Write the C-alpha coordinates for this entry.
Amino acid sequence: MTRSDDSAPPPTQSHPSALEPATLGLTLAVAVVGAVIGVQIVTALGVTPNTSIIGVLIAIMLSRVPLAALGRFRSIHRQNLVQTSISAATFGAANSLLVPIAVPMLLGRADLVVPMLIGAACGMFIDLAMLYWFFDTRLFPGRAPWPLGVATAEAIFAGDQGGRRGRLLSAGAVLGVLGSSGLFGGFKTLPVAAFGLAFLGNVWALTMFGLGLLVRGYAGRVSGADLDALLVPHGIMVGAGLVALGQAVASVLRGDRSEGADPPLEPLVRARSGLVRGLGLYVLAGTLLSLLGGLHTAMPGGQMVTWVLFAAVACIAAELIVGLSAMHAGWFPAFATTLVFLLLGLLLGFPAAALGLLAGFVASGGPAFADAGYDFKTGWCLRGSGRDPAFEREGRRQQLIAAVMGFSVALLVVGVAYSIYFRRGLFPPVVRVYAATIEAGLASSSARQLFTWAIAGAALQLLGGPKRQLGILFATGLLIFNPAAGWAVLMGVLVRVWLARRRELAEGASSTIFAAGLVAGDAVWAFVGSLVG
Protein backbone atom coordinates (compact mmCIF):
# COMPACT_ATOMS: atom_id res chain seq x y z
CA MET A 1 0.00 0.00 0.00
CA THR A 2 1.71 3.15 -1.16
CA ARG A 3 -0.63 5.97 -0.30
CA SER A 4 2.40 8.17 0.15
CA ASP A 5 2.76 8.18 -3.63
CA ASP A 6 -0.25 10.47 -3.85
CA SER A 7 1.52 13.16 -1.84
CA ALA A 8 4.56 13.26 -4.09
CA PRO A 9 5.51 16.76 -5.20
CA PRO A 10 4.76 17.72 -8.80
CA PRO A 11 7.62 16.92 -11.16
CA THR A 12 10.05 19.54 -12.33
CA GLN A 13 10.58 20.34 -16.00
CA SER A 14 13.87 18.47 -16.34
CA HIS A 15 15.51 15.68 -14.42
CA PRO A 16 19.10 16.03 -13.11
CA SER A 17 21.64 14.13 -15.18
CA ALA A 18 23.56 11.24 -13.68
CA LEU A 19 26.59 12.50 -15.62
CA GLU A 20 26.80 15.94 -14.00
CA PRO A 21 30.33 16.20 -12.57
CA ALA A 22 29.27 16.49 -8.91
CA THR A 23 26.63 13.77 -9.18
CA LEU A 24 28.93 11.49 -11.15
CA GLY A 25 31.72 11.92 -8.62
CA LEU A 26 29.51 11.12 -5.63
CA THR A 27 27.76 8.17 -7.28
CA LEU A 28 31.10 6.61 -8.20
CA ALA A 29 32.48 7.21 -4.70
CA VAL A 30 29.52 5.63 -2.93
CA ALA A 31 29.54 2.78 -5.46
CA VAL A 32 33.09 1.88 -4.44
CA VAL A 33 32.02 1.90 -0.78
CA GLY A 34 28.96 -0.23 -1.56
CA ALA A 35 30.89 -2.78 -3.61
CA VAL A 36 33.59 -3.23 -0.95
CA ILE A 37 30.99 -3.57 1.79
CA GLY A 38 28.95 -6.04 -0.26
CA VAL A 39 31.92 -8.33 -0.90
CA GLN A 40 33.07 -8.17 2.71
CA ILE A 41 29.69 -8.91 4.25
CA VAL A 42 28.55 -11.65 1.87
CA THR A 43 31.73 -13.61 2.62
CA ALA A 44 31.56 -12.98 6.37
CA LEU A 45 27.83 -13.28 7.03
CA GLY A 46 26.32 -14.71 3.85
CA VAL A 47 23.89 -11.81 3.40
CA THR A 48 23.87 -8.56 1.48
CA PRO A 49 22.89 -5.36 3.33
CA ASN A 50 20.37 -2.93 1.91
CA THR A 51 22.54 0.14 1.32
CA SER A 52 19.88 2.28 -0.38
CA ILE A 53 19.02 4.02 2.88
CA ILE A 54 22.73 4.55 3.56
CA GLY A 55 23.11 6.25 0.18
CA VAL A 56 20.19 8.53 1.01
CA LEU A 57 21.71 9.46 4.37
CA ILE A 58 25.06 10.25 2.74
CA ALA A 59 23.43 12.50 0.15
CA ILE A 60 21.29 14.27 2.76
CA MET A 61 24.25 14.90 5.07
CA LEU A 62 26.40 16.24 2.22
CA SER A 63 23.58 18.52 1.08
CA ARG A 64 23.70 20.26 4.47
CA VAL A 65 27.37 21.18 4.02
CA PRO A 66 27.52 24.93 3.18
CA LEU A 67 29.16 24.50 -0.22
CA ALA A 68 27.43 25.32 -3.48
CA ALA A 69 28.60 22.12 -5.17
CA LEU A 70 27.10 19.98 -2.38
CA GLY A 71 23.95 22.03 -1.89
CA ARG A 72 22.55 20.63 -5.12
CA PHE A 73 22.13 17.27 -3.35
CA ARG A 74 19.12 18.74 -1.59
CA SER A 75 17.39 17.62 -4.79
CA ILE A 76 15.42 14.45 -4.07
CA HIS A 77 16.17 13.28 -7.61
CA ARG A 78 19.93 13.53 -7.14
CA GLN A 79 19.56 11.65 -3.86
CA ASN A 80 17.69 8.98 -5.82
CA LEU A 81 20.62 8.66 -8.24
CA VAL A 82 23.09 8.31 -5.36
CA GLN A 83 21.10 5.57 -3.63
CA THR A 84 20.59 3.78 -6.96
CA SER A 85 24.33 3.66 -7.56
CA ILE A 86 25.37 2.40 -4.12
CA SER A 87 22.58 -0.17 -4.01
CA ALA A 88 23.46 -1.52 -7.46
CA ALA A 89 27.13 -1.74 -6.55
CA THR A 90 26.44 -3.60 -3.30
CA PHE A 91 24.11 -6.23 -4.76
CA GLY A 92 26.10 -6.45 -7.97
CA ALA A 93 29.44 -7.13 -6.29
CA ALA A 94 28.11 -9.55 -3.68
CA ASN A 95 25.24 -11.46 -5.27
CA SER A 96 25.71 -11.08 -9.00
CA LEU A 97 29.50 -11.47 -9.27
CA LEU A 98 31.25 -12.93 -6.22
CA VAL A 99 28.71 -15.70 -5.60
CA PRO A 100 28.83 -16.98 -9.22
CA ILE A 101 32.62 -17.05 -9.53
CA ALA A 102 32.98 -18.83 -6.18
CA VAL A 103 31.06 -21.86 -7.50
CA PRO A 104 33.69 -23.17 -9.96
CA MET A 105 36.43 -22.28 -7.47
CA LEU A 106 34.92 -24.56 -4.83
CA LEU A 107 34.47 -27.28 -7.45
CA GLY A 108 38.23 -27.22 -7.99
CA ARG A 109 37.97 -25.52 -11.37
CA ALA A 110 39.96 -22.32 -10.89
CA ASP A 111 40.35 -22.17 -14.68
CA LEU A 112 36.62 -21.40 -14.96
CA VAL A 113 36.63 -18.38 -12.64
CA VAL A 114 37.42 -15.79 -15.33
CA PRO A 115 34.91 -17.23 -17.85
CA MET A 116 32.34 -17.27 -15.06
CA LEU A 117 33.12 -13.65 -14.16
CA ILE A 118 32.52 -12.65 -17.79
CA GLY A 119 29.30 -14.66 -17.96
CA ALA A 120 28.08 -13.33 -14.61
CA ALA A 121 28.77 -9.75 -15.67
CA CYS A 122 26.72 -10.35 -18.83
CA GLY A 123 23.87 -11.82 -16.76
CA MET A 124 23.95 -8.90 -14.33
CA PHE A 125 23.75 -6.23 -17.05
CA ILE A 126 21.10 -8.16 -19.02
CA ASP A 127 18.93 -8.39 -15.91
CA LEU A 128 19.22 -4.65 -15.35
CA ALA A 129 18.26 -3.99 -18.96
CA MET A 130 15.27 -6.32 -18.74
CA LEU A 131 13.96 -4.65 -15.60
CA TYR A 132 14.38 -1.28 -17.32
CA TRP A 133 12.25 -2.57 -20.22
CA PHE A 134 9.71 -4.27 -17.96
CA PHE A 135 9.25 -1.64 -15.26
CA ASP A 136 5.90 0.18 -15.37
CA THR A 137 4.42 -2.37 -17.76
CA ARG A 138 1.72 -4.94 -17.08
CA LEU A 139 4.34 -7.43 -15.84
CA PHE A 140 5.94 -5.14 -13.26
CA PRO A 141 3.76 -2.05 -12.80
CA GLY A 142 5.10 1.10 -11.23
CA ARG A 143 1.99 1.18 -9.04
CA ALA A 144 2.81 -2.27 -7.61
CA PRO A 145 3.99 -2.37 -3.96
CA TRP A 146 7.82 -2.79 -4.27
CA PRO A 147 7.96 -2.30 -0.45
CA LEU A 148 11.66 -1.52 -0.03
CA GLY A 149 11.44 1.05 -2.80
CA VAL A 150 8.61 2.78 -0.97
CA ALA A 151 10.60 2.75 2.28
CA THR A 152 13.53 4.45 0.57
CA ALA A 153 11.26 7.02 -1.05
CA GLU A 154 9.70 7.82 2.32
CA ALA A 155 13.17 8.36 3.79
CA ILE A 156 13.97 10.84 1.01
CA PHE A 157 10.62 12.62 1.40
CA ALA A 158 11.15 12.89 5.15
CA GLY A 159 14.61 14.38 4.71
CA ASP A 160 13.23 16.87 2.19
CA GLN A 161 9.93 17.87 3.80
CA GLY A 162 10.32 17.12 7.50
CA GLY A 163 7.16 17.94 9.45
CA ARG A 164 4.70 15.21 10.42
CA ARG A 165 6.02 12.85 7.77
CA GLY A 166 9.54 13.23 9.12
CA ARG A 167 8.41 12.66 12.71
CA LEU A 168 6.49 9.52 11.81
CA LEU A 169 9.36 8.10 9.79
CA SER A 170 11.87 8.95 12.53
CA ALA A 171 9.72 7.29 15.19
CA GLY A 172 9.47 4.15 13.06
CA ALA A 173 13.21 4.20 12.37
CA VAL A 174 14.03 4.46 16.08
CA LEU A 175 11.78 1.49 16.86
CA GLY A 176 13.30 -0.34 13.89
CA VAL A 177 16.81 0.14 15.32
CA LEU A 178 15.71 -0.83 18.83
CA GLY A 179 13.86 -3.91 17.64
CA SER A 180 16.47 -5.22 15.22
CA SER A 181 19.29 -4.56 17.70
CA GLY A 182 17.60 -6.35 20.57
CA LEU A 183 17.76 -3.25 22.77
CA PHE A 184 14.19 -3.66 24.00
CA GLY A 185 14.94 -4.69 27.56
CA GLY A 186 15.13 -8.46 27.95
CA PHE A 187 13.92 -9.23 24.43
CA LYS A 188 15.74 -10.92 21.62
CA THR A 189 16.05 -9.38 18.19
CA LEU A 190 12.59 -8.63 16.78
CA PRO A 191 11.62 -8.94 13.07
CA VAL A 192 10.46 -5.33 12.87
CA ALA A 193 11.22 -5.07 9.14
CA ALA A 194 8.91 -8.02 8.44
CA PHE A 195 6.12 -6.29 10.40
CA GLY A 196 6.70 -3.06 8.48
CA LEU A 197 6.71 -4.77 5.10
CA ALA A 198 3.22 -6.11 5.84
CA PHE A 199 1.89 -2.55 5.40
CA LEU A 200 3.71 -1.96 2.12
CA GLY A 201 3.26 -5.15 0.08
CA ASN A 202 0.42 -7.11 -1.52
CA VAL A 203 -1.90 -8.52 1.17
CA TRP A 204 -2.56 -11.87 -0.54
CA ALA A 205 1.08 -12.41 -1.39
CA LEU A 206 2.24 -11.42 2.09
CA THR A 207 -0.27 -13.74 3.73
CA MET A 208 1.01 -16.70 1.73
CA PHE A 209 4.58 -15.65 2.42
CA GLY A 210 3.90 -15.54 6.15
CA LEU A 211 2.16 -18.94 6.06
CA GLY A 212 5.13 -20.39 4.18
CA LEU A 213 7.51 -19.07 6.83
CA LEU A 214 5.43 -20.66 9.60
CA VAL A 215 5.08 -24.00 7.82
CA ARG A 216 8.83 -24.14 7.26
CA GLY A 217 9.53 -23.08 10.84
CA TYR A 218 7.23 -25.54 12.61
CA ALA A 219 6.84 -28.53 10.28
CA GLY A 220 9.83 -30.29 11.79
CA ARG A 221 8.68 -29.69 15.36
CA VAL A 222 5.09 -30.78 14.72
CA SER A 223 5.53 -33.73 12.37
CA GLY A 224 9.25 -34.41 12.40
CA ALA A 225 9.35 -33.94 8.63
CA ASP A 226 12.45 -32.40 7.05
CA LEU A 227 10.98 -30.28 4.27
CA ASP A 228 14.38 -29.63 2.74
CA ALA A 229 15.25 -33.31 2.56
CA LEU A 230 11.87 -34.04 0.97
CA LEU A 231 12.47 -31.19 -1.53
CA VAL A 232 9.07 -29.71 -0.67
CA PRO A 233 10.05 -26.01 -0.96
CA HIS A 234 12.07 -26.64 -4.13
CA GLY A 235 9.35 -28.66 -5.82
CA ILE A 236 6.65 -26.12 -5.03
CA MET A 237 8.88 -23.34 -6.38
CA VAL A 238 9.54 -25.32 -9.57
CA GLY A 239 5.83 -25.74 -10.25
CA ALA A 240 4.88 -22.20 -9.23
CA GLY A 241 7.81 -20.73 -11.14
CA LEU A 242 6.96 -22.51 -14.38
CA VAL A 243 3.34 -21.40 -14.13
CA ALA A 244 4.42 -17.84 -13.29
CA LEU A 245 6.65 -17.83 -16.36
CA GLY A 246 3.74 -19.02 -18.48
CA GLN A 247 1.44 -16.39 -16.98
CA ALA A 248 3.97 -13.66 -17.70
CA VAL A 249 4.47 -14.74 -21.30
CA ALA A 250 0.71 -15.05 -21.83
CA SER A 251 0.16 -11.57 -20.39
CA VAL A 252 2.71 -10.07 -22.77
CA LEU A 253 1.49 -11.95 -25.83
CA ARG A 254 -2.23 -11.32 -25.41
CA GLY A 255 -1.83 -7.68 -24.36
CA ASP A 256 -4.84 -7.80 -22.07
CA ARG A 257 -6.18 -4.28 -21.54
CA SER A 258 -8.72 -5.02 -18.89
CA GLU A 259 -9.22 -2.75 -15.91
CA GLY A 260 -5.96 -2.03 -14.18
CA ALA A 261 -3.84 -2.86 -17.23
CA ASP A 262 -1.24 -0.59 -18.70
CA PRO A 263 -1.95 2.15 -21.23
CA PRO A 264 -2.64 0.65 -24.66
CA LEU A 265 0.54 0.62 -26.69
CA GLU A 266 3.91 1.78 -25.39
CA PRO A 267 4.20 -0.39 -22.22
CA LEU A 268 2.90 -3.43 -24.13
CA VAL A 269 5.47 -3.00 -26.90
CA ARG A 270 8.19 -2.49 -24.32
CA ALA A 271 7.28 -5.67 -22.46
CA ARG A 272 7.08 -7.78 -25.62
CA SER A 273 10.31 -6.50 -27.10
CA GLY A 274 12.00 -6.73 -23.69
CA LEU A 275 11.11 -10.39 -23.37
CA VAL A 276 12.33 -11.22 -26.87
CA ARG A 277 15.51 -9.16 -26.57
CA GLY A 278 16.22 -10.53 -23.11
CA LEU A 279 15.91 -14.13 -24.26
CA GLY A 280 18.14 -13.41 -27.24
CA LEU A 281 20.77 -11.74 -25.06
CA TYR A 282 20.74 -14.61 -22.61
CA VAL A 283 21.19 -17.11 -25.42
CA LEU A 284 24.18 -15.12 -26.70
CA ALA A 285 25.65 -14.76 -23.21
CA GLY A 286 25.09 -18.45 -22.49
CA THR A 287 26.78 -19.41 -25.74
CA LEU A 288 29.75 -17.17 -24.92
CA LEU A 289 30.00 -18.64 -21.41
CA SER A 290 29.84 -22.23 -22.68
CA LEU A 291 32.61 -21.58 -25.22
CA LEU A 292 34.86 -19.70 -22.79
CA GLY A 293 34.28 -22.47 -20.25
CA GLY A 294 35.15 -25.20 -22.73
CA LEU A 295 31.81 -26.96 -22.39
CA HIS A 296 31.98 -27.92 -26.06
CA THR A 297 34.79 -30.31 -25.10
CA ALA A 298 32.87 -31.81 -22.16
CA MET A 299 29.48 -32.30 -23.82
CA PRO A 300 28.25 -33.38 -27.24
CA GLY A 301 26.86 -30.66 -29.48
CA GLY A 302 23.22 -31.45 -28.82
CA GLN A 303 23.67 -31.39 -25.07
CA MET A 304 25.53 -28.09 -25.23
CA VAL A 305 22.69 -26.53 -27.22
CA THR A 306 20.30 -27.86 -24.58
CA TRP A 307 22.46 -26.32 -21.87
CA VAL A 308 22.48 -22.91 -23.55
CA LEU A 309 18.71 -22.88 -24.08
CA PHE A 310 18.00 -24.18 -20.58
CA ALA A 311 20.35 -21.63 -19.04
CA ALA A 312 18.66 -18.77 -20.93
CA VAL A 313 15.15 -19.84 -19.93
CA ALA A 314 16.28 -20.51 -16.35
CA CYS A 315 17.72 -16.99 -16.08
CA ILE A 316 14.46 -15.42 -17.24
CA ALA A 317 12.36 -17.68 -15.00
CA ALA A 318 14.62 -16.93 -12.03
CA GLU A 319 14.41 -13.17 -12.55
CA LEU A 320 10.61 -13.39 -12.75
CA ILE A 321 10.43 -15.45 -9.55
CA VAL A 322 12.79 -13.14 -7.69
CA GLY A 323 11.23 -10.01 -9.18
CA LEU A 324 7.65 -10.99 -8.35
CA SER A 325 8.61 -11.89 -4.78
CA ALA A 326 10.45 -8.59 -4.36
CA MET A 327 7.60 -6.61 -5.92
CA HIS A 328 4.84 -8.10 -3.79
CA ALA A 329 6.54 -8.89 -0.48
CA GLY A 330 9.90 -7.08 -0.37
CA TRP A 331 11.66 -10.39 0.19
CA PHE A 332 13.21 -12.53 -2.51
CA PRO A 333 14.73 -16.06 -2.45
CA ALA A 334 17.62 -15.44 -4.85
CA PHE A 335 19.98 -18.10 -3.47
CA ALA A 336 17.23 -20.72 -3.14
CA THR A 337 15.92 -20.04 -6.65
CA THR A 338 19.37 -20.76 -8.04
CA LEU A 339 19.36 -24.05 -6.13
CA VAL A 340 16.02 -24.95 -7.70
CA PHE A 341 17.39 -24.58 -11.24
CA LEU A 342 20.56 -26.36 -10.23
CA LEU A 343 18.41 -29.35 -9.21
CA LEU A 344 16.68 -29.23 -12.59
CA GLY A 345 20.09 -29.16 -14.25
CA LEU A 346 21.00 -32.31 -12.33
CA LEU A 347 17.85 -33.96 -13.64
CA LEU A 348 18.94 -33.11 -17.19
CA GLY A 349 22.26 -34.86 -16.61
CA PHE A 350 24.69 -31.99 -17.21
CA PRO A 351 28.30 -32.66 -16.11
CA ALA A 352 29.75 -30.98 -13.03
CA ALA A 353 31.51 -28.13 -14.85
CA ALA A 354 28.36 -27.28 -16.78
CA LEU A 355 26.32 -27.34 -13.56
CA GLY A 356 28.79 -25.01 -11.86
CA LEU A 357 28.56 -22.49 -14.69
CA LEU A 358 24.77 -22.89 -14.78
CA ALA A 359 24.45 -22.11 -11.07
CA GLY A 360 26.67 -19.05 -11.39
CA PHE A 361 24.88 -17.80 -14.51
CA VAL A 362 21.43 -18.07 -12.92
CA ALA A 363 22.67 -16.52 -9.64
CA SER A 364 24.08 -13.50 -11.46
CA GLY A 365 20.77 -12.03 -12.46
CA GLY A 366 17.91 -12.25 -9.98
CA PRO A 367 19.26 -9.91 -7.26
CA ALA A 368 20.17 -7.28 -9.87
CA PHE A 369 16.62 -7.47 -11.20
CA ALA A 370 14.96 -7.11 -7.79
CA ASP A 371 17.30 -4.38 -6.59
CA ALA A 372 16.73 -2.33 -9.73
CA GLY A 373 12.99 -2.74 -9.19
CA TYR A 374 13.24 -1.23 -5.71
CA ASP A 375 15.32 1.67 -7.00
CA PHE A 376 13.01 2.39 -9.94
CA LYS A 377 10.02 2.28 -7.57
CA THR A 378 11.74 4.83 -5.34
CA GLY A 379 12.26 7.10 -8.33
CA TRP A 380 8.69 6.49 -9.52
CA CYS A 381 7.35 7.72 -6.16
CA LEU A 382 9.65 10.73 -6.09
CA ARG A 383 8.76 11.74 -9.65
CA GLY A 384 5.04 11.93 -8.93
CA SER A 385 3.89 8.32 -9.37
CA GLY A 386 3.81 8.47 -13.15
CA ARG A 387 1.68 11.61 -13.44
CA ASP A 388 4.15 13.05 -15.95
CA PRO A 389 5.11 10.12 -18.24
CA ALA A 390 7.90 11.99 -20.05
CA PHE A 391 9.51 13.08 -16.78
CA GLU A 392 9.16 9.56 -15.39
CA ARG A 393 10.86 8.00 -18.43
CA GLU A 394 13.72 10.50 -18.32
CA GLY A 395 14.24 9.99 -14.61
CA ARG A 396 14.27 6.22 -15.00
CA ARG A 397 16.82 6.55 -17.80
CA GLN A 398 19.09 8.56 -15.51
CA GLN A 399 18.67 5.89 -12.84
CA LEU A 400 19.68 3.29 -15.40
CA ILE A 401 22.90 5.21 -16.03
CA ALA A 402 23.57 5.41 -12.27
CA ALA A 403 22.94 1.67 -11.90
CA VAL A 404 25.26 0.87 -14.81
CA MET A 405 27.97 2.91 -13.10
CA GLY A 406 27.34 1.03 -9.87
CA PHE A 407 27.58 -2.35 -11.64
CA SER A 408 30.73 -1.28 -13.47
CA VAL A 409 32.40 -0.32 -10.20
CA ALA A 410 31.26 -3.65 -8.72
CA LEU A 411 32.86 -5.53 -11.62
CA LEU A 412 36.12 -3.67 -11.13
CA VAL A 413 36.18 -4.25 -7.36
CA VAL A 414 35.40 -7.96 -7.65
CA GLY A 415 37.88 -8.41 -10.48
CA VAL A 416 40.62 -6.95 -8.30
CA ALA A 417 39.64 -8.45 -4.93
CA TYR A 418 38.28 -11.96 -5.55
CA SER A 419 41.66 -13.71 -5.54
CA ILE A 420 42.50 -12.16 -2.16
CA TYR A 421 39.33 -13.54 -0.61
CA PHE A 422 39.58 -16.96 -2.22
CA ARG A 423 43.21 -17.41 -1.17
CA ARG A 424 42.10 -16.80 2.41
CA GLY A 425 39.29 -19.35 2.08
CA LEU A 426 36.56 -16.69 2.28
CA PHE A 427 33.55 -17.78 0.24
CA PRO A 428 29.85 -16.85 0.45
CA PRO A 429 28.34 -19.65 2.58
CA VAL A 430 25.58 -20.47 0.09
CA VAL A 431 28.17 -21.40 -2.54
CA ARG A 432 29.22 -24.37 -0.42
CA VAL A 433 25.63 -25.61 -0.70
CA TYR A 434 25.75 -25.32 -4.49
CA ALA A 435 29.06 -27.15 -4.68
CA ALA A 436 27.93 -29.91 -2.31
CA THR A 437 24.71 -30.36 -4.32
CA ILE A 438 26.65 -30.74 -7.57
CA GLU A 439 29.06 -33.23 -6.05
CA ALA A 440 26.29 -35.30 -4.40
CA GLY A 441 24.05 -35.53 -7.46
CA LEU A 442 20.32 -36.27 -7.41
CA ALA A 443 18.76 -39.66 -6.73
CA SER A 444 15.78 -40.93 -8.74
CA SER A 445 13.59 -40.80 -5.62
CA SER A 446 14.45 -37.11 -5.26
CA ALA A 447 13.32 -36.50 -8.82
CA ARG A 448 9.93 -38.03 -8.02
CA GLN A 449 9.59 -35.87 -4.91
CA LEU A 450 10.48 -32.76 -6.89
CA PHE A 451 7.87 -33.58 -9.53
CA THR A 452 5.16 -34.38 -6.98
CA TRP A 453 5.51 -31.11 -5.12
CA ALA A 454 5.83 -29.20 -8.38
CA ILE A 455 2.25 -30.19 -9.16
CA ALA A 456 1.09 -28.68 -5.86
CA GLY A 457 3.03 -25.49 -6.52
CA ALA A 458 1.61 -25.16 -10.02
CA ALA A 459 -1.95 -25.64 -8.74
CA LEU A 460 -1.50 -22.99 -6.05
CA GLN A 461 -0.05 -20.49 -8.53
CA LEU A 462 -2.90 -21.11 -10.96
CA LEU A 463 -5.45 -20.69 -8.16
CA GLY A 464 -4.16 -17.25 -7.19
CA GLY A 465 -3.47 -15.99 -10.69
CA PRO A 466 -0.74 -13.55 -11.75
CA LYS A 467 -1.96 -10.70 -9.52
CA ARG A 468 -1.77 -12.61 -6.24
CA GLN A 469 1.27 -14.86 -6.84
CA LEU A 470 0.18 -17.34 -4.16
CA GLY A 471 2.44 -20.17 -5.27
CA ILE A 472 5.57 -18.06 -5.68
CA LEU A 473 5.24 -16.38 -2.28
CA PHE A 474 4.28 -19.56 -0.40
CA ALA A 475 7.34 -21.26 -1.86
CA THR A 476 9.46 -18.23 -0.95
CA GLY A 477 8.39 -18.60 2.67
CA LEU A 478 9.11 -22.33 2.62
CA LEU A 479 12.65 -21.67 1.42
CA ILE A 480 13.48 -19.40 4.38
CA PHE A 481 13.79 -20.54 7.99
CA ASN A 482 12.49 -17.60 10.01
CA PRO A 483 9.25 -18.41 11.87
CA ALA A 484 9.44 -15.19 13.90
CA ALA A 485 9.25 -13.21 10.66
CA GLY A 486 6.20 -15.27 9.70
CA TRP A 487 4.36 -14.23 12.85
CA ALA A 488 5.41 -10.62 12.32
CA VAL A 489 4.18 -10.57 8.71
CA LEU A 490 0.81 -12.10 9.56
CA MET A 491 0.36 -9.80 12.56
CA GLY A 492 1.11 -6.81 10.35
CA VAL A 493 -1.37 -8.01 7.74
CA LEU A 494 -4.09 -8.36 10.39
CA VAL A 495 -3.48 -4.84 11.70
CA ARG A 496 -3.48 -3.48 8.16
CA VAL A 497 -6.78 -5.22 7.31
CA TRP A 498 -8.29 -3.98 10.57
CA LEU A 499 -7.37 -0.39 9.73
CA ALA A 500 -8.80 -0.76 6.23
CA ARG A 501 -12.11 -2.13 7.50
CA ARG A 502 -12.43 0.75 9.96
CA ARG A 503 -11.89 3.05 6.96
CA GLU A 504 -9.35 5.06 8.94
CA LEU A 505 -7.70 6.46 5.84
CA ALA A 506 -5.58 9.03 7.68
CA GLU A 507 -4.30 6.40 10.07
CA GLY A 508 -3.70 4.10 7.11
CA ALA A 509 -1.48 6.67 5.41
CA SER A 510 0.32 7.31 8.68
CA SER A 511 0.85 3.60 9.18
CA THR A 512 2.48 3.38 5.76
CA ILE A 513 5.01 6.08 6.62
CA PHE A 514 5.62 4.59 10.07
CA ALA A 515 6.10 1.13 8.52
CA ALA A 516 8.62 2.55 6.08
CA GLY A 517 10.49 3.92 9.08
CA LEU A 518 10.60 0.45 10.66
CA VAL A 519 12.12 -0.96 7.47
CA ALA A 520 14.60 1.92 7.22
CA GLY A 521 15.67 1.58 10.85
CA ASP A 522 16.17 -2.15 10.46
CA ALA A 523 18.27 -1.57 7.32
CA VAL A 524 20.46 1.02 9.06
CA TRP A 525 21.08 -1.24 12.04
CA ALA A 526 21.79 -4.26 9.84
CA PHE A 527 24.32 -2.17 7.92
CA VAL A 528 26.04 -0.85 11.05
CA GLY A 529 25.92 -4.23 12.76
CA SER A 530 27.50 -5.96 9.77
CA LEU A 531 30.39 -3.48 9.81
CA VAL A 532 31.14 -3.71 13.52
CA GLY A 533 30.35 -7.41 13.80
